């Protein structure tokens, strides 16, 4: 008999019918004798509906009032799910973030959890009840309602699992696990049984939208076993278990590469011939950061004459025009260099903790891409990741070719 | 500079546009230097939407979960109204019933307020902020969300006004005050400047749906000056002030009659020839009460032979068939009597504290109805009220004729 924290997102509770399906699934776990705490998001569409109401009233609503407003979304779901559980004969009690004692800091709309009071939950579990908790929300020390930011329900689930010392935190979603590559463009992609927190973090930040990054960090920090599963009836597989990095006992059989991520939502900007003097990177990136534009890959090369440098980075495509205009001002100010850019790029990344102990990943990657006739435009590496920027047209070819080359193709 | 508690119902905050109008009105009071606490209901339609969701899931949802669910309606409104106030330059803070410390008993869906913590409100008022409080809801001693039952936002308003010792509790509604009769059927009806709590209670229970009865009782008990006003922009009259009964200093000029109420939603049932023995009324009404059927007027007459009695009462028309069937069982059991009934009736009532000190109201009423050719089928009186039951066809004629006879017609 185990204690599970099960989190269901907005799509999984998007209609009354789906809420009933969730209740059935939770009820089955309960009937098997397990203790279950359920964390739910707002019904899909509800948060956007509330935000639209607010925007009709105020261009920049007070963050406190936004949290007051949108936190009602999860409150509706917990009440409905508790009703659905009771309708099916499973005793259940719902709690808002405030009621269950999820104490956060005061950073409205992006609050961080400070502590969780588990007394009420443990009492209910002991009495054989399923506990239904509103995800995404908490309360500061003064009783003001806060929210953890979009996707924060995953974090609520992991934080509750940590506080309750749950055996597993199960995140139900619309995919049945983490894949070696995006199955929509790579038909040979296969579901991973396990993946490490570190790898998952690299994959999440590279564009795999399965889990919210913060919840994965949290799971790593508090060693919470985290499982991603499908919430759809007809697909009750084991999902993917995300395990803490165990540096003392690394698996002998660790695969070189766990997965391949791709991202076609970035654009590349380069300042050609910038003066190669200290502080030039800061001078170029300062105004970009000030404009709240997020920069992803950064590459700098010294040009052959040793006096000037080529400085490249990538930004989200939505920020491309704004970033380019800012760069042109900077170049004019510096009196040197030239700005060029490209929006038709793709970033393809190999991720795997196995990379740490094996050389040759980069050379195999480059060789594979070269034999497929794909030109590499930018390279960036971390300890367990290699990312390359290529022409967008070649995205699928690159992912498929690398998938085969690194032995990830599923057995037929 | 006064302290006002202003309550706006669901229609007054039914759309984003109307919420902005409410913010403008509240802002004007604030700019005049008054302190304002605003109590709001859920946007019209929202509570019904939530109840429909619950009914799709469970025939009889747990009352605790129902309160968890429907209390989100007011929470949405308070956040939106606080945003609208800030948009117009009026600093504002919203509070749920739980946050502001409206402590109730545990009677989910029909809780009663036990106490209110005014500390947070007073601090905000001192800081020059408008305080926006969710009506209709509170929290029990253990932190469970409760609601006060439909229309409970009026009660929240009055209770807050009492706790804060406000100068006035203003209930904004879709009528501009309390009238001497229903203006839709009596064109000469006029708005009352003042009415006593006692009169208002009689009028409310007689079918004038301006205010919730409980809030009026509360206002009387705690001597809260209560004003009913129109929430519509183009009708900013003074409304009607509901004043506490002042038995020590009655006004010398108290009018005989304050208003005429009518109700065409009742049906009459009579047991003819019931045995005139102790306990017969209880025997007749017991099963009616057990079936949760509310009984209004009750009249009993001894029949000429002194051995049997005719027992009549009125019930809501929706309960007529059920009540009649129950009565027929009772009559069969008693082995005596006969059940007759009529659904085409109207109850017309005169209300006025002036009645207490003046004789002759009943005789003038009966004389007036007789000269209009209206037959009286039942009579019932209280200290400040006379009600008659007549044929439904004569409702408007009766109200208009009595309105003129008792000098209530407005000056031309």
TrEMBL record, chains A, B:
Residue ranges of domain ACT in the record: 269-344, 350-412
Pfam family, one: ACT_9
GO cellular component: cytosol
Gene Ontology MF terms in the entry: aspartate kinase activity; ATP binding
UniProt superkingdom: Bacteria
The UniProt record lists the keyword Zinc-finger: no
Catalytic activity: L-aspartate + ATP = 4-phospho-L-aspartate + ADP
UniProt similarity note: Belongs to the aspartokinase family.
Protein name, as recorded: Aspartokinase
Highest classification ranks of the organism: Bacteria, Pseudomonadati, Pseudomonadota, Gammaproteobacteria, Oceanospirillales
